[in-house]
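hi support,

uploading two proteins for the ticket. first:
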Amino acid sequence: MQLSDHLEAYDEDLKQVVIRISEVTKKISRGFASRQGVSDSSNIYGEQQLTMDKWADELLIAELRPSGLVKSFASEEQPDVLTFKSSTDIGVTVDPLDGSSLIGVNLAVGTIVGIYRGSVLSPGSEMVGAMYVLYGPLTTLNYCLGDGVHEFVLNDHGEFILQEQNVMIGGSKIYAPGALRRDYLPAHREFIETLEEEGYKLRYSGSFVADVHQILHKGGVFTYPAYQGREQGKLRLLFEVNPMGYIVTHAGGAASNGEQNVLTLKPLSVSQRVPVYIGGKKEIELVENLMKGE
């Protein structure tokens, strides 16, 4: 079954947003070989943009701005929320190319998208959908519009074909830990040591979308915690944490900042960062109990 057929039951505007973005990701998947290197600009976080980062962002804007499907658009590569002419109330957040620093060593990277009706500066619990595309040995697309998580693979004919319907998080013991161990805060250190004592295997690539994709399929937990020198965390609530947390939650998992469900947090700005734990409910319950001192 093709992606467009699988989306048939959803509202037409939501369906078209997912399809339009999926078409852009096909172009992105073909663009890696000819767009290596860095650009001459930086994003709002002071990070030098790679050529692919900037190009992917421009592609998404060029596709969505004239579509009439999206009213507001927030990108990790843009300083402000953009407003497009549209008759809909759909807002979209994008990380055009998550993990792009790994492109030079040919590791998996991805595009992450959150979908809202109304303001994108709303809690993740108010999202109406999310999707991500992973560019690895295969190009895969996972989407959720509130009714299960569904995975598609890009075939040789340039079509996204259903690979797995109603994906549910696995039960394996895997952990993907960000930040340097020397900088761990006490409760997080205890959490990691508990996982290691219970036989969890470390699997971490440095690409958030790729690591969470693995956790989604195999189980366990991804974490980029608060740590010494960055007590507010590293990952962006709007562009990374909320969309992936939404997807994993709808697949039977959970997402937390260590104290509460991240999807309940109201973003204070487009650039807000948060600590994050995404994975199985058991692992999330464990870390929240440790953070509470239980």
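and the second one:
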Amino acid sequence: MPHDHHDHHDHHDDHTHGEDHPHAHLPPDPALRVRALETILTRKGLIDPAALDAIIDTYQNRIGPKNGALVVARAWADPEFHAALMRDATAVVADMGFFGRQGEHITAVANTPQTHNMVVCTLCSCYPWPLLGIPPGWYKSDAYRARAVREPRKVLADFGVTLPGDKAVRVWDSTAEMRYLVVPERPEGTEGWSVEALAGLVTRDSMIGTGLPRQPG
């Protein structure tokens, strides 16, 4: 079902957020409601459970974060590719064959020694499926969606990420019109590595901004 449209913008870590949007109040047991809806639609012949399972398997197991990891690894290894990705990520990832529903418009934001980027969808759960697969449960939770904007450093600490005090945290709000891919900083000690080897260091959470890449060894 289509997402509700909402404005996209970035927030700095000193940003204060207003009252929660009504869409933030999710059902107490969304998984149960999804299962009930699936059952009704199946009985009415409107969906094919086998086709639905195939779609879920594709995004959860075969795609996962592998596509995004390859994009990040190429950005680490190739400065020209990195520059093109920053200019027009939508076109670049489409050229790599990573496009489709939930990935029509992509913006890449790069971490630097001065800035750490983190992505949230404050009103629903917009997420770049063709690059990262199915969003994790915590990404869709009320707690993450509210706290990521209000207290991003505390949220990062909950994920085990502690940043230097002088490094700014920038929070990007995904929407139905724009989704974000974080390009984490390349780990030291990886000079001369192949793109495939570099991709093995890229984690899903590092591309959302709630984690860091794996370290060599």
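thanks. also noticed: The chain is about 40% helix and 10% strand.
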